[in-house]
Amino acid sequence: xxxxxxxxxxxxxxxxxxxFDVLGFALDTVGDEMIIRKxxxxxxxxxxxxxxxxxxxxxxxxxxVAALALLAETNIEFGFEIEINKKIKPxxxxxxxxxxxxxxxxxxxxxxxSPFNTTDLVRFAMEGEKLASGEAHADxxxxxxxxxxxxxxxxxxxxxxxxxxxxxxxxxxxxxxIEIKTSEARKLLSQTVSLKNATKQWANVGGLIxxxxxxxxxxxxxxxxxxxxxxxxxxxxxxxxxxxxxCLETGALGCGISGSGPSIFVLSKGEKKALxxxxxxxxxxxxxxxxxxxxxxxxxxxxxxxxxxx
Length: 310
Ligand code: HSE
Known about the structure:
CATH topology of the largest domain: Ribosomal Protein S5, domain 2
Largest sheet: 7 strands, mixed
Strand content: 25-35%
Number of strands: 11
Structural class: alpha+beta
Radius of gyration: 19 Å
Bound molecules: L-homoserine
Distance between the termini: 10 Å
Number of domains: 2
Shape: globular
């Protein structure tokens, strides 16, 4: 049995415009690094986090809570230490809490010889999401664990479908340096959706899934519309409408809020177009006057990756 594992746990884009709480995908170049170590002491200890604002107490930390949910379904006589090197800022909208929760349970499962399947791991990681946002949504943890695009077809029972990724799909993420708490952004949403908007929304989910399956980039682009969360949440993101309009005029396939924001994701066909779109995004955002990070990434089809084992 291996004693220690170092992993990369990817950032993720949830909702993907039309799929509130059910669609997401994983990024290739952005994510946290974590070290998980087997120790004689039972339970979970978070020994190190490079972000002082995050709690080390196991039951207040998303990785700790997710890991405890996994351990509760084992009868092992030892425990684990977790070190987290956060490279995704909390409150950024690209699945910071999900990367920690998913990474912890994925690595522990690996060290235990994989007694649990990927759907079980999502179920455990969702406990971390519940702690972070008040609701156990799976649209960040599922793509982190499965890789690629995922659809949560059902929450009860949990039914997760991995969707193929067209090979020329490139993502650009802009992360304005403001924080939006997912728990707050969820409270803004109405609990009801009009039949007219629901009809448009589920038609777009069908279109997006079909486009991803058939490499139909135009259909993917046409389907990236959100009639549920974006109209309300976009008001929290300075410059959102101008940025979206500019990306579309520059030839991006589509643009929307990543998760609950403030990050914005843009999908383009091919790297050349993605870089052109990125430049246009910088021009818009430099005028907004808020500092930002910008990432260009492929979709990560593998999900969490092992960097080292001992
Ligand atoms: N589906 C969740 C939300 C994702 O939009 O609240 C949060 O990252």
